[in-house]
Amino acid sequence: MAAPGGTDVELDTSRRTVDAATFRGTLGNLGAAVAVVTSGQGEARDGLTLTALCPLPADPPGILVCIERDAGVRAALVGTKSFAVNYLLAGQAAIARAFACRGDAAARFAPGGWTTLTTGAPVFVNSLASLDCELTDLREHGTHSVVTGSIVNAVRRSEGEPLIDFRGQFARLVPFDLSAGLGEKFKPAESN
């Protein structure tokens, strides 16, 4: 394998890995924003609920998403070379559950509230934030495809809380006062 700069790097592929249950349980302790990734156009739309995604550096803006190889949205994404990441609001667990189930993709979009932006990928108008992306790379890793997208458009709400997946359950953020019990030195500045 060639590393940046053309130097060959030998990888040790004999390393052991933790089992899937340990992996999921460990990362489930961290909490993650819940998103619905969508792709396709017209009646050929599909989508999937996931938390396996990561923003990339902002120059240029990008995102990395992990999708099961056999998920219908993967085929739509490869066909259109575009996708949207729709981050859900705390009260949208029903949308997350609908897109977590396999089956009739059209039924998942039935509740309505969908539009498109630059790429034509389905964007949920009631989401906390949506990223409209062009496919820039797709690599296979085990049972999943690691998808990289260039963000070509984005919309967001100025208010609302994200839906969080914490230990396999939907949760919401609970704000707390950082200055409580920290003394005068750490109290936030008064706003005018």
Please trace the helix and strand order, writing H or E for each element. HEEEEEHEHHEEEEEE
Identify the overall geometry: globular
Describe the main β-sheet briefly.
Answer: 7 strands, antiparallel
**Percentage of residues in helical conformation:** 10-25%
Oligomer: single chain
Please characterize this protein's 3D structure:
Helices cover 16% and strands 36% of the residues. With 192 residues, the protein is α+β, with helices and mostly antiparallel strands. A seven-stranded antiparallel β-sheet has the order 3-2-6-9-10-5-4. It has a three-stranded antiparallel β-sheet with strand order 1-11-12, with no helix packed on it. It has a two-stranded antiparallel ribbon with strand order 7-8. The mean pLDDT is 86. It has helices at residues 20-28, 72-80, 93-100, 105-109, and strands at residues 32-33, 35-39, 46-50, 53-56, 62-68, 82-87, 114-116, 122-124, 129-141, 144-156, 163-166, 169-172. The chain is globular, with a radius of gyration of 19 Å. The chain has four helices and twelve strands, in the order αβββββαβααββββββ.
